[in-house]
Amino acid sequence: MASGLVAAGTLAGATTAAAEETGQHQGGATAVLDGLKTFDRALLHTGGEGGKERTTQELPAGLFEMTVDGGGRLKTYCIDIHNPTQDQAKYLETPWIQTSLGANKNAGKIRWILQHSYPQVDDLAVLAEKAGTGPLTERTAAAGTQVAIWRYSDDAEVEAADKQAEKLADWLEDEAVNMAEPKASLALDPAAVSGRAGGRLGPVTVRTDAGQVSVAPPADAAASGITVTDKDGKPITEAVDGTGLYFDIPEDAADGSASLTVQATTSVPVGRAFAGVTRSQTQILAGSSESTVSATATATWAETGAVPALTAKKNCAKGGVDITAANKGDAPFTFELAGFQHTIEAGATRTVTIPVAEDQAYDFTITGPGGFRKNFKGVLDCATSGSTVTGDGVGTQSAKQPVPASTGTSSTGIEGDLAETGGSSATPLIAGIAIGLVVLGGGAVFLLRKKKPAGEGDDGGNAG
């Protein structure tokens, strides 16, 4: 197996506690949900078509808060009304394409709403005058804004219980125009590179809206002699948007891998999506303090054989996870997926989509030469409806339920009524054809090994 890779994978219920998306986060902010803090009430109407009984459910609507790993606070709105939140859920800054926003033609209108309402417009008298609502409070402004967002994020028939909040929601809905997705606060592209020792591996390009980022070399850089440099070999400790970073690997370095980290303190751009590591209501950023953001890239090198560089991204359009393998070695390698074989020639790059059902947890571990090991975990959450638990309604708590002690209510919420939308921890194991394709036998997902003789199982490069 010197020039091959082995990947074992499992699929489990979406409530798996250890489902950290190791190696899959494209960078940016990582945060923990603290609960719904500034909110009022809304009314969600469902049914009434096709003979279904029309129902109305009262639910809270407003601003969540998150604590950023490393420092900072975020304020977010929900863009996933039909899924519950999980207490203290971990969230990752995520590109729109990897959430329900990717297929939503009105995603840009949601960003406009965020830019033109509370809390970005914190002078409520000015906001009320523009919208013609009458007096607004923080609670009603947050509720009206959330209601307008839900109409575009979930195509929901929802209204604010408060008259002024409802007028704000109507005004925001009517005035909204599409805006482009904001840039990531911090990312590295690509997140993995590979090659031979004795040269510079890269570039890994910095993408950020921060003025400057710090660059941390591999942890054992002093002992290994590995440095992070520019294209000319000059060591780099600081970078800006567009900077190309390289791993400078000594010629006598043993086969292995290393990583670098970039970090900055900046305000995360309004409109960035935040997806839960475990199944928890997808959020969109409404405001950010100065927060710590980071991104990591890895390099792998070997003397002979295949040399892998692996990355993974959720593919909501295809309903799965894209695993991209770049082979910078001098030998091809072949992998099997659901009975299909694919060969990546030396110097080539291929992407394979592993089918995963909506709301399904996944766990892929890939190992290779020189101690190479990469793990991809997470939950595929691409839809805003159709995945609720029978009996849970839309997955939101009734406003008559008490506030859980751990949510941390504030004076801007409704004391003693409700802390957060969602709250149900019941998550079904989603089964289907896609899972049948992925889970074969004891849970093996795919196998990468030495290439067979020509014509023996090679599909000519077409991913299944």
Structure, explained:
With 464 residues, the chain is mostly beta strands. Helix content is 12%, strand content 37%. It has six helices and 25 strands. The protein has a six-stranded antiparallel sheet with strand order 21-20-25-1-23-24. A six-stranded antiparallel β-barrel has the order 2-3-4-16-15-5. A five-stranded mixed sheet has the order 8-17-14-10-12, with no helix packed on it. Strand 3 (55-68) and strand 4 (73-78) form a beta hairpin. Helix 1 runs antiparallel to helix 3 (138-153) and helix 3 crosses helix 4 (163-175). It is elongated, with a radius of gyration of 24 Å. The two termini are 24 Å apart. The relative contact order is 0.22.
Biggest β-sheet description:
6 strands, antiparallel
Strand content: 35-45%
Q: Which strand order spans the largest sheet, edge to edge or round the barrel?
A: 21-20-25-1-23-24
Count of runs of 4 or more consecutive helical residues: 6
Rounded mean pLDDT score: 79
User: Can you give the helix content as a percent range?
Assistant: 10-25%
Please report the distance between the alpha carbons of the first and last residues. Answer: 24 Å
Query: Which class best fits the helix and strand makeup?
Result: mainly beta
Q: List low-confidence stretches.
A: 1-23, 386-464
Q: What's the Cα radius of gyration? A: 24 Å
Could you tell me the number of beta strands? 25
Shape: elongated
